[in-house]
Write a structure and sequence with these properties.
EC number: 2.6.1.-
GO molecular function: identical protein binding; L-aspartate:2-oxoglutarate aminotransferase activity; L-tyrosine-2-oxoglutarate transaminase activity; pyridoxal phosphate binding
Family: Belongs to the class-I pyridoxal-phosphate-dependent aminotransferase family.
Number of helices: 14
Distance between the termini: 50 Å
CATH architecture of the largest domain: 3-Layer(aba) Sandwich
Bound molecules: (2S)-2-hydroxybutanedioic acid
Oligomer: single chain
Strand content: 5-15%
Helix content: 40-55%
Cofactor: pyridoxal 5'-phosphate
Largest sheet: 7 strands, mixed
Number of strands: 13
Shape: globular
Number of domains: 2
Keywords: Aminotransferase, Pyridoxal phosphate, Transferase
Mean pLDDT: 96
CATH superfamily of the largest domain: Type I PLP-dependent aspartate aminotransferase-like (Major domain)
Structural class: alpha/beta
Length: 397
């Protein structure tokens, strides 16, 4: 029966990790998948997470099922992180949150919700965007359109082109925005631009959807939510997919959240009841551990302060690596100006390297980066910096 099935292509990001693992070269460098590494090239469990896990081990008294959307404590903690502790959307009970298996699970819930309940609408994604966005929304049966985001010649955002494209969207269409640390470019809208985008969505009757996977990796947990919080003031309805893979380092626990904001409590509650129906037929109810860790940390002032510091340390190390990367490229004789890399936010840098250069980096130097030219800056260390920059200098020659 299976003889007619052909092999699927490898995933452009996770497939790269497999290739890297199979590479026997000892000096190989993995700057593919978005995983934070410390100065020793390791991804250890955050100490605040370890402490929370010790508490949970002691306190946990059942492995019984969670409810379909997870616990109310987790939902509230997620909302407070997104909107601020005393936000109107929370106090007015216009927000509902479902604990999802990772940020991808949240996006898939969003996709299914849109397809089943919002009719024949198009999802607008940025060009470029995270490699999995297309797959997730296509799998939900939704048509996609792209809006311009990046000007390769300037290595910068192209806000005018973005707005011009979004002006073409029809009322009811969904606009997917990256809450911060745009993946893959690392370039985010300014507050004025967020405001203009929110007004555009409101004026044209578009539904904003935020993919918020890197909160805390640009400037800080509160600061990074500025765009989303502007939208909550301007747009009455919103969808948000959160991930805690990166900011809590809980990658393999698959902990995320899908948050729906409605115009009022009644509409939000009714719409959210449909989200529960969708989750039930996909994964039934979520895995408990990762969300229990997040809830424990966010609801304990001491642990939260420790986590915020650990997050700041990750953010600062990445910033240091950006500066060092630009400096070392210069020192290796690279004449092309890479200073834009210091202005980008989050884990990634859109290097401008083309496909041939990306392939040569892998084949000739054991340096793995995503095909689009996206580099995971969080994988750079003082040890791999010179070999990395030497390899880049060679492929640019
Ligand atoms: C990435 O962009 O590298 C991460 O979000 C990991 C993934 O699932 O692709």
């Amino acid at each position: 029966m299976f003889e007619k099935i052909s092999a699927a292509p490898a995933d452009p990001i996770l497939g790269l990790t497999e290739e890297y693992k199979a590479d026997p070269r000892e000096d190989k460098i993995n700057l593919g998948v978005g995983v934070y590494k410390n100065e020793h090239g390791e991804t250890p469990v955050l100490p605040s997470v370890k402490k929370a896990e010790a508490l949970l081990l002691d306190r946990e008294n059942t492995k019984s099922y969670l409810s379909i959307p997870g616990t109310a404590e987790y939902g509230l903690a997620v909302q407070q992180l997104l909107f601020g502790e005393q936000a109107d959307v929370i106090n007015d009970k216009r927000a509902h949150t479902a604990h999802s298996p990772g940020g991808t699970g949240a996006l898939r819930l969003a996709g299914e919700f849109i397809k089943r309940h919002l009719g024949e609408v198009t999802v607008w994604i940025s060009n470029p965007t995270w490699a999995n966005h297309k797959g997730v929304f296509t799998a939900a049966g939704l048509p996609l359109a792209e809006y311009s985001y990046y000007d390769a010649a300037k290595n910068d955002k192209d806000f005018e082109a973005m707005v011009a494209d979004l002006e073409k969207a029809n009322a009811g269409d969904v606009v997917l925005l990256h809450g911060c640390c745009h993946n893959p470019t690392g370039i985010d809208p300014t507050e004025q631009e967020w405001q203009a985008l929110a007004e555009l969505c409101q004026r044209k009757g578009l539904l904003p959807m935020f993919d918020f996977a890197y909160q805390g990796f640009a400037t800080g947990v509160e600061e990074d939510a500025a765009g989303l919080r502007i939208f909550t003031k301007v747009c009455p309805e919103l969808l948000i997919a959160s991930s805690f893979s990166k900011n809590f380092g809980l990658y393999n626990e698959r902990v995320g959240a899908f948050t729906l904001v409605g115009r009022n409590q009644e509409e939000a509650t009714k719409a959210f009841s449909q989200v529960k129906t969708i989750a039930r037929v996909i994964y039934s109810n979520p895995p408990a551990h990762g969300a229990a860790v997040v809830t424990t940390i966010l609801n304990d002032a001491t642990l939260k302060a420790q986590w915020l510091q650990e997050l700041a340390d990750m953010r600062d190390r990445i910033k240091t690596m950006r500066t060092e990367f630009v400096k070392t490229l210069k020192a290796q004789g690279v004449s092309r100006d890479f200073s834009f890399i210091e202005q980008q936010n989050g884990m990634f840098s859109f290097s401008g390297l083309n496909k041939d250069q990306v392939n040569a980096l892998k084949a000739d130097h054991g340096v793995y980066i995503v095909g689009s030219g996206r580099l995971n800056v969080a994988g750079m260390t003082h040890t791999n910096m010179v070999p990395l920059c030497t390899a880049i200098a060679k492929v640019l020659d």
